[in-house]
Amino acid sequence: MNAKALFGACAACHGQNGEKAALGKSQIIKGWDKAKTIAALNGYKDGSYGGVMKGVMKGQVATKSDAEIDALAGFISNL
């Protein structure tokens, strides 16, 4: 699984290195550890996590498998 390719969709708003606040509203994800990222992505997916970007992010992760979320979290934790 190509985590970098998966992150391409994220980079559009979060920046190539996770350094941007998506649409000027989100947290900066650069530096997040894998567990925090997995918890956030799963929370967006099940609706239990998120602030102003909750609706946008739910759509982004709705179709992601557990393996894809794990791969993305690993990639993000190494940005």
UniProtKB/TrEMBL annotation:
Gene3D superfamilies: Cytochrome c-like domain (1.10.760.10)
Record keywords, A-Z: Heme, Iron, Metal-binding
Annotated TM spans: none
Key word Kinase present: no
Database matches in InterPro entries: Cyt_c-like_dom (IPR009056), Cyt_c-like_dom_sf (IPR036909)
Residues annotated as domain Cytochrome c: 1-79
Any one Gene Ontology molecular-function term assigned to this protein's record: metal ion binding
Keyword Cell inner membrane: no
SUPFAM superfamilies: Cytochrome c
Pfam families named in the record: Cytochrom_C
Protein name, entry field: Cytochrome C
